[in-house]
Amino acid sequence: MKLTWLTALLFPKRCPFCGAVIPQKDRCCRRCENALPLPRRDLCRGCGNAPCICGEDWPLKGVFPAFEYRDGAAWAIRQMKFHNRPAIARRLAPYLAEALPEGLTFDAVVPIPMLSAAVRKRGYNQAALLARFLSQEAGIPWAALLVKSRKTRPQHTLNAGERKVNLSGAYRLAKGADVRGKVLLLCDDVTTTGSTLREAANVLLRAGAAEVYAVTAATALREPSTDLDEF
Predict the structure, then answer these.
(1) Whether the Cβ atoms of residue 123 and residue 84 lie closer than 8 Å to each other
(2) Model pTM score
(3) pLDDT for 199
(4) What is the rounded CA–CA span in Å between residue 153 and residue 115?
(5) Taking the CA of residue 164 as centre, how many other CA atoms within 13 Å lie in the half-sphere pointing to its CB?
(6) Of the chain's two ends, which shows fewer C-beta atoms within 10 Å, N or C?
(7) What DSSP assignment string belongs to 71-106?
C-alpha cells in the first residue's frame, strides 16, 4: 500500500543509527551517513577481522561485515537485538547487500538459528530477519537450513576458547535440508571470535556444502572495547 502523508506523519521514518526522523527516501540521517563505521581496509577477507583469526581449520571461504561494531552501527544492532526494534533489520539489509563482493553467487542465505524458546521470548530471531531482508535486497533465496539443538551459555560471558567449546554441537542440519554441492552464505548480526560462524559452517560442510561464506551486520574486532559485554 502506498505510503500516505498521514502515515508518514504518524509513523515517521527514523535513522537506524541514531533514531532521528529522516525523509522517506533517505536510508539514514546526514550526520550518521558521514560517520558510518565502515570496515577497515586491513580486515582479513577470510574471517572479517583484524588481526586475522583464520587458522588451518578455518572452514569459511570469506566473511563480509557491513560495519565495525562501534558508534551508530553498534547502537543500531543493540536496538534491534535488545530493545525490541526488529524493523532495524530491514534498514540494515541494504548495507549487508553492499558488503558482498562482486562476482560471487550463492545458492541460499542461511541465518544463524536460535532456540525456539529464545525466539518466543524475544519475539524474533534478528539473524533470520537480516537474512530475509538481505534476500530481498540481493536476490538470493533464504533458507532456514540450520537449527539450534541445545541451549548454550551467552557468548559474551566467555573468552575465545570457551566460546568455541560452548557452541560445539549446538547446531544441526534442519530436517529435510539438502545442501550438497551448494554455495551458502551464513548471516548473523555480529561476529567477534568467529566461533558461531565456524560451528555453523562446519555443520553445512559436513553435510556436503561446496563452500560457505558469511555476511554480518558488524565485526567486533578482537581489541579491547567497552561495548563487547553488550552482545
Answers:
(1) yes
(2) 0.88
(3) 94
(4) 12
(5) 9
(6) N
(7) HHHHHHHHHHHHSS-TTHHHHHHHHHHHHSPTT---
| Cell numbers for 115 | 532456540
CB hemisphere CA count around 16 (13 angstroms)? 23
* CB distance 109 to 141 below 8 Å: yes
Is the distance from CB of 76 to CB of 17 less than 8 angstroms? yes
- What angle is formed at CA 118 by the lines to CA 184 and CA 85, rounded to 5 degrees? 80
Contact 147, 176 (CB under 8 A): no
- Least Cα distance to 212 among 176, 162, 173 occurs for 173
Q: Which three cell numbers stand for residue 205?
A: 560442510
Q: How far apart are CA 14 and CA 2, in angstroms?
A: 18
pLDDT digits (tens, 9 = 90+) for 134-164: 999 999 999 999 999 877 655 555 556 666 5
Q: Count the Cβ atoms, other than its own, within 10 Å of residue 138.
A: 18
Q: Cis bond leading into 65, ω under 30°?
A: no
